[in-house]
Design a protein that fits this description.
The protein is of the alpha+beta class. The chain folds into 2 domains: 170 residues, no CATH class; 113 residues, no CATH class. The chain has 9 helices and 12 strands. Strands 1, 2, 3, 4, 5, 6, 7, 8, 9, 10, 11 and 12 form a 12-stranded mixed sheet that branches. Helix 6 packs antiparallel against helix 8. It starts with 14 loop residues before the first helix and ends with a strand.
């Protein structure tokens, strides 16, 4: 077990009393990262090199975590996408639990083999670099927290993403998510998000929005549920419902005509897996 880092005062301190950080990246990429994000050191034993076969069992568990999180939605990643599009290109930051402390429910959910001994990943954040070293693309945020009846895991997704972005030394993050995704609750904790697309035919699910977030320490602390952090949420000019594809396409037309918009707060539930998202038009 580890103590929460002195520079974060978490709403749920049990997270870092239960879980330890890990990193999956090549040695070439690791040397560019901050291995002590917000004072939380990544132990050398928990840095996994995807170029070595000894990492195989842990990488298997990452695949199980991805399927548990995204399998029901039909968007789990093939193994080659993990390797080509994440482990070689950028990095995977996450939080995991020693196998000896993993509950039976978690072992079943994450398909932990009986003979496995080591860290069991409970959450991961994958990001990819762009030509601008300060700008990274968020690729995947997976958390077992919402799937397990364990109050100690509350806030796990936001903390994992915040620590991952800090580890990757990100100043601005680009991302794509669907209008009906619960992940917008997490992403909006970074403050207003610039809406780059509202309807995205280039994605397999065109009802996807593309956003840009500033990832300074204030935004990341609030994302992590730091009690000493906060971000402003301006009043919206209008709301977009997650299943209103016509409105999403209308908003896309306005963006392509040069108008600018922000997503300015968490969604409001409309029931039946529907939600509405607050949007503000910028001058």
């Amino acid at each position: 077990m580890i103590a929460a880092p002195a520079t974060l005062r978490l709403r749920n301190p049990a997270l870092l009393e239960t879980l330890s950080p890990f990193l999956v990246a090549t040695p070439e990429n690791v040397r560019h990262f901050d291995l002590g994000p917000f004072g939380l050191a990544v132990d050398a034993a928990n840095v996994f090199d995807p170029l070595h076969t000894r990492s195989e069992a842990f990488l298997d568990l990452l695949g199980h975590l991805d399927v548990a999180t995204f399998g029901p939605e039909g968007m789990p990643m093939p193994r080659w996408v993990f390797f080509n599009g994440a482990e070689l290109t950028g990095g995977i930051f996450g939080l995991g639990c020693p196998h000896t402390d993993v509950s039976d429910a978690a072992r079943a959910l994450l398909q932990v083999p009986d003979a496995y001994s080591g860290l069991v990943p409970f959450a991961m954040y994958i990001a990819l670099p762009t030509f601008d070293p300060d700008v990274w693309v968020g690729h995947n945020l997976a958390s077992a927290g919402p799937l397990l009846p364990d109050e100690r895991l509350k806030g796990l997704g936001g903390l994992t993403k915040a620590l991952g972005l800090k580890c990757f030394r990100t100043k601005r993050q680009l991302g794509a998510t669907q209008w009906d995704s619960a992940a917008i609750y997490v992403h909006s904790r970074m403050g207003p998000l610039g809406v780059l697309t509202a309807w995205t035919p280039g994605h397999s699910e065109p009802w996807t929005l593309t956003y840009a977030a500033t990832t300074d320490d204030g935004a990341l602390r609030n994302l992590a549920h730091d009690l000493d952090a906060s971000v402003a949420h301006p009043e919206p000019d209008f709301w977009v419902e997650s299943d209103d594809h016509a409105e999403q396409q209308r908003l896309q037309d306005l963006i392509e005509a040069g108008q600018r918009f922000e997503l300015v707060g968490p969604p409001e539930s409309l029931g039946s897996k529907r939600q509405r998202i607050p949007i503000r038009q910028l001058p």
